[in-house]
Amino acid sequence: MKLKIKITWEIILLILIILVFVISSILSPYFLDIVNLLDNTTNFMEKGLISLAMAYIIISGNIDISVASNMGMTSAFMGVLHRAGTNIWICVLIGLLIATLGGFLNGYLIVRFRLPAIAITLGTYALYRGIAYILLQDTAVGIESESFMYLGQGYIGNTPIPFSLVVYIIFAFIFGFILHKTTLGRYIYATGNNEQACKFSGIPVEKIKIILFTLIGFMSGLGTIFLTSRLSSIRPDIGSGLELEVIATVVLGGVSILGGSGNMIGVVLSLFLLGYLTYSLNLLNIPSQVITIILGLLLVSTILISNFIEQRRKLVKS
């Protein structure tokens, strides 16, 4: 009896992670240090948190390119308040509220004016970053609160496990459960597959859009808090360019850029693949420009392969 193993995108990602580990450990003796491997995860946890919500957005057939600008705006509001003497934890709460409202505004405008998500979020991409620079200009606000810095720099007890990694894992489980085990998750997939059919069948498509964009706003705020905590600094340019990395993480994770397919396991694996690939290339002193080119080629290849697989599936069905 032959054992048949179905090669899924998640298995391919897992194989790629193993290859990165094997090749990197051969090229650099420092790569497999468990403390360094765990510590390095702090460099991409904020991206991971936002990627979870971005997966929902893209699976539903939408996209949000304003997430990084929302982070900058959130950071700027926190900076202005903290510079005025406001307690850092009050700044955190207000920052989360600002980011969530930024996401809600995106969703509301998309639904209210029936415009594509990319059109609205392109506008708020510029709007939110502009607000950030008006509030803080080019200045940075330092943070000295040890309890706040623990979020992005702390470890669980005496272990080398970063606190931010534990937070990410918890959120990944929650997002995965909602996507794969709840009615909302089924609606997200259905909306991405055929939005018009969903409207005719009574699925509250517009309400779902507002919920998803509000959610990614909240996760952008959470990412901002962990990033500012890690950097011990609040700046208006924080997260600049992160939206492309987040989208790349989601698409590499097997989520179709056209919507309607993908899963949370792939997104999580993609995050660690990109994170450790970048870490390995940095250890080998590869210039950042070359790293960007490599990651860009990887993303383009992923989209082409994903499109090829989708076309093959359609041919098989027909």
Automatic annotation (TrEMBL):
Where in or outside the cell is it found?
Cell membrane
Record keywords: Cell inner membrane, Cell membrane, Membrane, Transmembrane, Transmembrane helix, Transport
Which parts form a coiled-coil structure per UniProt? Answer: none
Membrane among keywords = yes
Q: Name one GO molecular function term.
A: transmembrane transporter activity
Pfam families attached to this UniProt entry: BPD_transp_2
Oligomer status and interactors = The complex is composed of two ATP-binding proteins (LsrA), two transmembrane proteins (LsrC and LsrD) and a solute-binding protein (LsrB).
Protein name listed in UniProt: Autoinducer 2 import system permease protein LsrD
